């Protein structure tokens, strides 16, 4: 199968080789970072992050959207701070994410809150923080928010998340816009809820939300979903409702291997015509598009193992650090930290040290020969990498590093044995 080469992918991010064959993030060789931090380590490029936000802001400037970066993709405070400083809002799904949003001083009026199972305390915290919108996914949740707001004598803005029953053609686990998933509310129910919403004294139904899935590589599913949503809005507005906010979710796909996902401009060229002459505040909730290509996971090769049928690179990073290959069979490119022009190429499995056969980063992958002690990077690991990591096998979670120009900073320390047992007692 053809896979994109180093140079081609370099246009998407700021990881590339210098003349000495060293992989650099912006102007810093990874070798220099790893000498200080050890491995495994997540390394992020500040420039890639903010460039991707800017690409979306530019592509949609004619409708002045509010872009609420989806915190679940990468919730490191330094990542959030960099984006909030460039005007981003935040899309949250828990009290914990609200806590992070407040830590980086994101204004409440730039926060939207999604999720099918919000707890009372989380709802109260969000009301107190004066967030812009609750994205509501069921009638009981709507009633709960109304009742809690009433007790607090506050009015809140609410969008219903519509499930438009559109197939986004992505992995089943990240498909959310089909009727059989737990997400959103079908058109018929939603219509009834909007039309009866005058009875809600403290929840103002002023928005519509839709998010059909993640890693969607073409515009068609979005166009199909948004068309249906706009028809629906026309219908309920004709019946006397006023919609002020249209939240079109996230889901934009990025390059992992040989896909050719659309650019922000191509996406905008399909979506903007639908929004012409519309008056609402448009909101987007991109996660992966902004942070996916902005991060890599660097690991050290501990052993090179040969069996009768395979060659393995055994690394000091495992599925607890990056679960995407194990969980979604996801493809991540693998690059050496030091390129050697004379290196022969073989086919390897790249695996971690964890006691599970699912603990792999690549299978049957042609890679340059590397020796124990050398480092490699698992590319495009900025989104759903660290945030989905765990302490499985009592492994401390990796450190995280932010690079900006010629300098770098550890933005989360590597976890210690003490961190592993914090809160436990015998
Ligand atoms: N808005 C809502 C309501 C969401 O549920 C999500 C992601 C997003 C926005 C951001 O989607 P994005 O732009 O990142 O595609 N762990 C999986 C992805 C799970 C996505 C969950 N929801 C993965 O590693 O591929």
Can you give the mean pLDDT?
A: 95
In the CATH scheme, the class of the largest domain would be Alpha Beta
The tally of structural domains comes to 2
Strand content: 15-25%
> What is the fold named in CATH at topology level of the largest domain?
TIM Barrel
What is the structural class? alpha/beta
Shape: globular
Helical residues, percent: 25-40%
Multimerization state? single chain
Bound molecules: ligand LLP
E-strand count: 20
**CATH-scheme architecture of the largest domain:** Alpha-Beta Barrel
- The unreliable regions are 1-10
Give the termini separation. Answer: 53 Å
Number of helices: 13
CATH superfamily of the largest domain: Alanine racemase
Radius of gyration over C-alpha positions, nearest whole angstrom: 23 Å
Main sheet specs: 9 strands, mixed
């Amino acid at each position: 199968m053809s896979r994109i080469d180093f140079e081609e992918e370099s246009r998407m991010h700021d990881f590339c080789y210098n003349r000495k064959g060293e992989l650099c993030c912006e102007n810093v060789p990874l070798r220099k970072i790893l000498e200080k931090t050890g491995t495994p380590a997540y390394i992020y490029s500040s420039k890639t992050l903010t460039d991707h936000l800017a690409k979306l802001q530019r592509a949609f400037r004619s409708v002045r959207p509010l872009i609420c970066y989806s915190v679940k993709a990468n919730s490191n405070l330094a990542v959030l701070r960099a984006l909030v400083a460039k005007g981003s809002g935040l899309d949250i799904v828990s009290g914990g994410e609200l806590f992070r949003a407040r830590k980086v001083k994101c204004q409440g009026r730039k926060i939207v809150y999604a999720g099918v199972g919000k707890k009372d305390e989380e709802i109260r915290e969000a009301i107190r923080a004066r967030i812009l919108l609750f994205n509501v996914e069921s009638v009981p949740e709507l009633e709960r928010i109304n009742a809690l707001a009433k007790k607090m004598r506050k009015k809140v803005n609410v969008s219903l998340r519509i499930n438009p029953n559109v197939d986004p053609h992505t992995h089943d686990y990240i498909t959310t816009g089909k009727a059989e998933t737990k997400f959103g509310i079908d058109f018929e129910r939603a219509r009834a809820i909007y039309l009866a919403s005058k009875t809600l004294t403290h929840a103002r139904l002023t928005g519509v939300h839709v998010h059909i899935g993640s890693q969607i590589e073409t515009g068609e599913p979005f166009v199909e979903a948004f068309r249906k949503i706009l028809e629906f809005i026309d219908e309920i507005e004709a019946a006397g409702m006023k919609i002020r906010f249209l939240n079109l979710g996230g889901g934009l796909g990025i390059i992992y291997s040989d896909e050719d996902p659309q650019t922000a401009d191509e996406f905008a060229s399909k979506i903007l015509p639908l929004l012409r002459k519309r008056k609402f505040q448009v909101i987007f909730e991109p996660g992966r598009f902004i942070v996916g290509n902005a991060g890599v996971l660097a690991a050290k090769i501990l052993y090179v193992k040969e069996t009768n049928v395979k060659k393995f690179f055994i690394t000091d990073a495992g599925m607890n650090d990056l679960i995407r290959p194990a969980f979604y069979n996801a493809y991540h490119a693998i690059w050496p930290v030091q390129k050697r022009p004379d290196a022969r190429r073989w086919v390897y499995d790249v695996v971690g040290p964890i006691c599970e056969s699912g603990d792999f980063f690549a299978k049957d992958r042609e890679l340059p020969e590397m020796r124990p002690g050398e480092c490699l990077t698992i590319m495009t690991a900025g989104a759903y990498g660290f945030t989905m990591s765990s302490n499985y096998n009592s492994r401390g979670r990796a450190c995280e590093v932010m690079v900006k120009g010629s300098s770098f900073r550890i933005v989360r320390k590597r976890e210690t044995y003490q961190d592993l047992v914090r809160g436990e007692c015998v």
